[in-house]
Amino acid sequence: MPELPEVEVIVRRLRPLFEGRTLTSFRAISKKAVKTNPQTILKAILNQGLKGIQRRGKAIILEFPKGFLIIHLKINGQICLDTKQLPYALVELVFEGAEKNLYVCDRRALAEVRFTTDLDEEPFFKQMGPDVLDSSFTLEYFRDKIKRSRTKIKPLLMDQKFVAGIGNIYAVEALFRARIRPDRPANSLTDEEIERLYEAIKEVVKDSIRHGAVLKKYFYDGKSHPDFSGKLLVYGRENEPCAVCGGKVVKVTLGGRGTYYCPTCQA
Ligand SMILES: [Zn+2]
Question: Where are the domains of the chain?
């Protein structure tokens, strides 16, 4: 699933291509993927200029004068500018003067597009915790929530109601950087560990964005881009030597998800 850094990099790549351009066509190729009546969408955004492209948590938001088109890629959705992926296109957007059309694609057709006039009224955003990169994500908030929770720390980090943007990859990587075992009960963390984890989360997310995130599966524009996948320290590295101590990275299943950690470095 694309997480905060992946969606952030997608948004940054789309901005220079489409911002300020007029939408001349919106096509709901898959009726199931478009959660708002397409007629309502057309009435609101057709022939309107795209004011901006933003991200909230893991959602991409296209801002038009009369409202917002929200794209959620879910597990395997992709943003495609390259027509090679067209058999999996669910939605097509055409902008005047743009070199390429924008497609939301998904082999499993789980990605979703919806329209709203008020982002804060969307149930999906209403329940969402503070975004990792937002100033509302403070150490005080983080510490308070962790101390009150008996959930294991890794599934807690992935709970979007707690903090928005973290999924499996960055939960695993942040816990490694903070030297904390993924299966620790949240309320067993010391103040020092909580602070280390808070810094590690922000750091790994920013590092990933800087290096182009782990984007290969989620963004196609027919070009090759630098990628963060080679810089992941434990994720996907079962039985490989730990970058810090040289011991073996292990893989366990936690909350139904593959979880990687170093039993020597993480306590
Ligand atoms: Zn180690």
Answer: 4-126, 139-230
